[in-house]
């Protein structure tokens, strides 16, 4: 039985490796079209579903902001996977600086009462919301000095379809690493 399980595990790994262009997931399959890389997938879906910005300027700003969100997410991953609890204070200080940038971006668009870019939600908003939720898991008070970001997150999370999805079985919160349960 153990040999079968080990052989099956190897078979699954080999099956996945056929699909991993850059040696990692995620993978999006849209009909016969395949994409890899999280942010490429995010931008593609944003354009496909009309949440990439309403004109070229907004689209470009959404890309820029999304790149900033990705920088924040990479720092979060580094903290989770490479750092230890002793460095948490340093990470939270850096997080506070990064969150300040997003607070400023929000303040420049309808005084922080709408979205990151323009009058409609973009994929950059969804990316930031997910990243903020991840950071709230590390530090539940990380947004306390950022009233616009706090209100923004609350506003986005109240969107009916997003709220429904976040409560669904399809999107249960799972531990990211064994040490962050």
From TrEMBL:
Organism: Aquarana catesbeiana
Chief location of this protein within or outside the cell: cytoplasm
Residue ranges constituting the GST N-terminal domain according to the UniProt record: 1-53
Recorded GO CC terms: cytosol; mitochondrion; nucleus
Family: Belongs to the GST superfamily. Pi family.
Subunit architecture: Homodimer.
Top EC category: transferase
GO molecular function, one term: glutathione transferase activity
Superkingdom of origin: Eukaryota
EC number: 2.5.1.18
Keyword list, A-Z: Cytoplasm, Mitochondrion, Nucleus, Transferase
General function of this protein: Conjugation of reduced glutathione to a wide number of exogenous and endogenous hydrophobic electrophiles.
Name assigned to this protein: Glutathione S-transferase
BP GO annotations: glutathione metabolic process
Intracellular or extracellular location(s): Cytoplasm; Mitochondrion; Nucleus
UniProt cross-references to InterPro entries, sorted A to Z: Glutathione-S-Trfase_C-like, Glutathione-S-Trfase_C_sf, Glutathione_S-Trfase, Glutathione_S-Trfase_N, GST_C, GST_pi, GST_superfamily, Thioredoxin-like_sf
Limits of the GST C-terminal domain: 55-179
Annotated catalysed reactions: RX + glutathione = an S-substituted glutathione + a halide anion + H(+)
